[in-house]
């Protein structure tokens, strides 16, 4: 499973990054996670409000920080 | 448009945390009941306290002055201190209370809009209509200033005309609820309404002008190479009433949590000026009679960066001491609409020429507003 957190580096983007990492660690998931800050990369995915979360190429959330429960459901935990 | 070095304050209230699955309707109904049960007495309390702020401030300042008269101070000194204290004790809680209420209300309204939906509305719109819609949507669409560049690309690649995109990006930071509350609190509803309508008009006309100039080739080339897919994969789930209240509460926590300190500091400086600087002191440099004051104020304001919360209380004190209304509004608009850090970020997608045009068009807009209101008010 591949999870991307996208955001050019605002406070909420960092929050999202941290939260997703935490949930992955807590749930013992083997998901691979990246934090993408490159704007061209973000734009290529068709995302224009950040923070955004992409799981296996599918946009799950844009423009806000997810809740832990949300992240867990994406992980299938 | 403003980029607050990615601190996401002011116009950024995208903090709503909506549950993945729409919550079961029974627990939703319970939350709704709870919000109404708690919310109603709070509104009543708000109303009662708000109405008593002014007499309370007067009473407190009066007693403070009586207390001071026990010390060896001249009556002039005591009067300065008294009026400073009265100003602060009245204005600070008043503005903060207004902020709480308005930011909550705007948050609830914003829960009806998303950048995705706004893009859908604007895509393929004709220019003039598009500019008007874009400026209006700029007020209610929640978007974090640090995503200005991705948003820009998202709009342009979805065939939103360039000028229409600019209208959106100009109005979004300029006409924001924090600025409007402060202007209302310190100058009354007429000035707030004037600010809002001229802000919208600048956003519409500046965007329209940029569209007329056919600047499309002054975007960085990589922007056009991007074949942005529909981000429609992510479809906004339906929000319940309780979700919207939560969205509003998140906005309050986000925005008021961030700006309250600027508001307090700004009002403290304003209170100092109110108490100590003689009335009419600034008329000779910032008054109506000085023709060059408007362009100079705008030029100073362009690189300068501050959020509306910090600058308006100071501005209010300036006006009280004789600075002309138009000059001051022009200054404020140029501070809020363009800044140096923002142009640095925009440089990633715009070639220098387009940045220059954007800055000039907005500056000219602010200058016109300045002269107009110096003539009218």
List the helices and strands and how they pair.
The complex is a heterodimer of chains A (77) and B (377).
Chain A: E1 2-6, H1 11-27, E2 32-36, H2 39-44, E3 52-55, E4 58-62, H3 68-75
Parallel strand pairs in A: 1-2
Antiparallel strand pairs in A: 1-3, 3-4
Helix pairs in contact in A: 1-3
Chain B: H1 25-68, H2 75-110, H3 115-122, H4 127-140, H5 148-157, H6 162-174, H7 177-187, H8 189-212, H9 221-225, H10 241-276, H11 283-286, H12 293-301, H13 308-320, H14 325-337, H15 340-346, H16 352-376
Q: Reading side by side through the largest sheet of chain A, how are the strands ordered?
A: 2-1-3-4
Strand fraction of chain A equals: 15-25%
Biggest sheet statistics of chain A: 4 strands, mixed
Number of strands of chain B: 0
The shape of chain B, in one word, is: flat
Mean pLDDT of chain A: 84
Based on helices, strands and strand pairing, what is the structural class of chain B? mainly alpha
| End-to-end CA span of chain B | 27 Å
Helix content of chain B: over 70%
Overall tally of domains of chain A: 1
Q: What count of helical segments of chain A does DSSP give?
A: 3
Characterize this entry briefly.
The complex is a heterodimer of chains A (77) and B (377). Chain A has 77 residues and is an alpha+beta fold.
Features:
heterodimer; A: 77 residues; alpha+beta; globular; B: 377 residues; flat; disordered N terminus
Verbal overview:
- The complex is a heterodimer of chains A (77) and B (377).
- With 77 residues, chain A is of the alpha+beta class.
- Chain A has helices at 11-27, 39-44, 68-75, and strands at 2-6, 32-36, 52-55, 58-62.
- In chain A, strand 1 (2-6), helix 1 and strand 2 (32-36) form a beta-alpha-beta unit.
- A 4-stranded mixed β-sheet of chain A has the order 2-1-3-4.
- The two termini of chain A are 13 Å apart.
- Chain B is built from 16 helices and no strands.
- The model of chain B is unreliable at 1-23 (pLDDT under 50).
- In chain B, helix 4 packs across helix 8 (189-212).
- At the A-B interface, helix 1, helix 2, strand 4 and helix 3 of A face helix 3 and helix 5 of B.
């Amino acid at each position: 499973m591949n999870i991307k957190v996208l955001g050019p580096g605002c406070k909420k983007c960092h929050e999202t990054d941290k939260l997703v990492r935490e949930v992955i660690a807590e749930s013992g998931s083997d998901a691979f996670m990246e934090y993408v800050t490159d704007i061209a990369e973000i734009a290529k995915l068709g995302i224009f409000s950040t923070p955004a979360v992409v799981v296996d190429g599918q946009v799950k959330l844009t423009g806000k920080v997810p809740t832990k429960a949300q992240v867990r459901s994406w992980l299938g935990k | 448009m403003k980029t607050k070095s990615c601190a996401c304050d002011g116009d950024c209230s995208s903090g709503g945390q909506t549950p993945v699955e729409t919550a079961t309707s029974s627990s939703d109904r319970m939350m709704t009941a709870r919000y109404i049960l708690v919310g109603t007495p709070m509104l009543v309390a708000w109303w009662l306290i708000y109405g008593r702020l002014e007499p309370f401030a007067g009473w407190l300042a009066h007693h403070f002055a009586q207390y001071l008269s026990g010390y060896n101070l001249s009556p002039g000194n005591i009067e300065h201190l008294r009026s400073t204290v009265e100003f602060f004790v009245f204005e600070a809680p008043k503005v903060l209370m207004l902020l709480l209420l308005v930011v909550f209300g705007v948050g609830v309204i914003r829960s009806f809009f998303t950048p995705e939906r706004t893009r859908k509305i604007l895509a393929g719109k004709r220019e003039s209509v598009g500019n008007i819609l874009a400026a209006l949507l700029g007020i209610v669409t929640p978007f974090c200033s640090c995503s200005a560049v991705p948003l820009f690309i998202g709009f342009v690649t979805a065939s939103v005309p360039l000028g229409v995109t600019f209208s959106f990006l100009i109005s979004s930071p300029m006409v924001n609820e924090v600025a409007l509350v402060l202007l209302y609190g310190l100058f009354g509803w007429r000035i707030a309404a004037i600010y809002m309508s001229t802000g919208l008009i600048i956003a519409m006309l500046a965007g329209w002008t940029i569209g007329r100039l056919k600047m499309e080739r002054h975007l960085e080339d990589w922007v056009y190479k991007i074949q942005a897919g529909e981000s429609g994969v992510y479809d906004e789930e339906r929000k319940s009433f309780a979700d919207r209240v939560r969205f509003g509460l998140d906005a309050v926590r986000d925005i008021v949590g961030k700006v309250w300190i600027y508001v307090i500091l700004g009002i403290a400086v304003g209170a100092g000026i109110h108490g100590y600087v003689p009335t009419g002191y600034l008329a000779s440099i910032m008054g109506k009679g000085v023709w060059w004051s408007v362009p100079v104020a705008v030029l100073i304001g362009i690189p300068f960066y501050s959020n509306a919360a910090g600058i308006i209380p100071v501005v209010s004190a300036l006006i009280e001491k004789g600075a002309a209304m138009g000059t001051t509004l022009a200054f404020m608009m140029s501070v809020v609409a363009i800044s140096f850090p923002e142009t640095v970020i925009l440089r990633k997608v715009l070639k220098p020429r387009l940045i220059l045009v954007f800055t000039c068009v907005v500056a000219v807009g602010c200058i016109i507003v300045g002269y107009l209101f110096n003539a009218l008010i």
